[in-house]
Amino acid sequence: MNPLPSARDLILGRVRAALGDASTVPEQPLARGYLSTHAPADDPAALLDLLHRNLADYRALVHRCTEAELPSRIHELLAARGSRTVVLPAGLPPSWLSAAGDTELLPDDGSLTAARLDAVDSVVTGCALAIAETGTIVLDGGPGQGRRLLSLVPDHHLCVVRAPEQVVASVPLALPRLVPARPQTWISGPSATSDIELDRVEGVHGPRTLEVLLVTA
Length: 217
Known about the structure:
single chain; alpha/beta; Rossmann fold; six-stranded parallel beta sheet; 6 helices; 12 strands; 24% helix; globular
């Protein structure tokens, strides 16, 4: 006696019967009429202001400076935290830390373990881009960004965003500029989670403090 077909087989059989032989049907493009952004994508100053507000809304500490001021601002922010050991990813411009004084700089050559990174005070990185509408920074392991471990273990992450070239309005405008095969890390504020009573805890699976330097010409 043949066993009764399973519910799965019955459902899939009915789907196949309803579709017929779909292998010869050419794929039809799906019309997508939605807006690619709600932000003023053609207004760099307004985009930068929007990014600043949304980063701050996610409890990131946001600062602005010019390119010429960048080394001294990095030094000031690290000194304000009392950071004595700072990790530098490969490809980070040496000029960024030219005013670091007696801070111990640890270039990342891939040998720094999670335990060693947990003991450092700060990490300084660049980014691939930043998304104004969502207040999100994207790292993809490119020059000056380093391994994902660098932005997930140290308690303090200082990230430099160059405006306007690294600031985009929205996620749909960001995706075409990213390489899917690269190890992307999307950051919206410091690491945080909350329990069923909505008690917020920061620093659980990433930096407790995220500082962002928005750099203009």
